[in-house]
Amino acid sequence: GAKAYTADTKPCQLPLDSLSAACVSGEAMFLAGTVYQVPSAGAEGGETDGEVSSGTTYSFSSGDSGFSFAFGDAIRAALCRLDPAAGKAELLEGYVPEPGVSVMAVAPGADGTIWVMEQNMGRGETLDGLSDTASILQAAASTQVWRQLSADGAQELARIDAAQVMEGQPVSASLVDGAGRLYLASGSSVTAVDGGGNPLFTCKGQEDIVRLVPLADGAVGALTMNVEGGRTVTPIDPDAKSWGAPRPLTGSAASIYPGGDTYEFLYTSGDSLYGWPKGADAPQKLLSWSSSGIDCGQVFTMTFLPDGRGAALLWDDSDMSAAGSVALLFPADEDAMAGRTVLTLATMGLDSETRAMVMDFNRTSRDYRIEIQDYSEYNTPDDASAGLTMLNTEILTG
């Protein structure tokens, strides 16, 4: 069963005003987002009253993800490096992209370097005359470039233009592996290319690919979803040039995170965190987010550190002033937990309001502790009602 964890959560001042992507490299997290630049008085163009103009914003949705591009002199893409154990973040001052660039994905490179996937929409001229979502998506995909940067973000070490490689085919997702190979998803296929953009191999025959996800030891997997909503992660084997064994995920599997040294990957399903141990044929339930004192809806990314602690970056953008914090997860003190009566809350899914009430109760009660049993986590890609069947069976058996 899952272990009980407690979280030590502290505010973390991030040098970013918004977040768009994250990756884990060793014990560090690299974060991508934007910063707002207020022109100083007397700058080119005249004096300013301090107002920040974000220029033009284009917003649209694709699948279950939403994207927003903002252009203007006041907003630019930025990167930072976070040490979660210390709770300290620093801006990569060397990374100063061209106006109109948005960083849509990041991936760890060799020797502390970082890969960034940039979309350069200029100052909006690329989207002139476009009104429908499909046309905007196609225009955005046509500008996707992956760049490998030095650890400080200042030097470009390699570049792969995704649009040139696919020669007009739509790119639904892309990701770089630990060896510098770029994987490009289109429909139900994934094409791998080398650092020079030369095609290496193509894997075909999957269900529709939702996105590509990082796996342990620099590998890449494809997250797919069937018509019933069941999700599966299938690794890509570059040596065999084929798909590996599929990893069917329980429940909704809303978010997938790097697995650290022990797991191929981590994912949230319902109120629980699961890990797929290396070499295993089934996932393992690791902890309950709410029992640990964390709102899983605020987890932007997480991983396990070499010493066994969990480290989660929390991002609360529920109001106008988004704020970051870092939660370090420790195995709970069993003696302290033993004196509290456990109450089980059985659910099929859990809304944020109920989750907040459970967390508040667990923080304030010394005699009781509520544990959430979300039966939707038992659903599988082949049986979307497995959790409901289990709930009904346990009710009937008392």
What does the model show?
Helix content is 11%, strand content 44%. It has 398 residues and is mainly beta. About 8% of the residues have low confidence. Strands 16, 17, 18, 19 and 20 form a five-stranded antiparallel beta sheet that branches.
Largest sheet entry: 5 strands, antiparallel
* Alpha carbon gyration radius: 22 Å
Distance, first to last CA = 21 Å
Structural class: mainly beta
Q: What sort of overall outline do the alpha carbons produce when their principal axes are compared?
A: globular
Q: Give the fraction of residues assigned to helices.
A: 10-25%
Oligomer: single chain
Number of helices: 5
Q: Which blocks of ≥5 consecutive residues have pLDDT under 50?
A: 41-72
Compute the average pLDDT: 81
Beta-strand percent range:
35-45%
Number of strands: 29
Short description:
The chain contains five helices and 29 strands. The chain has 398 residues and is mainly β.
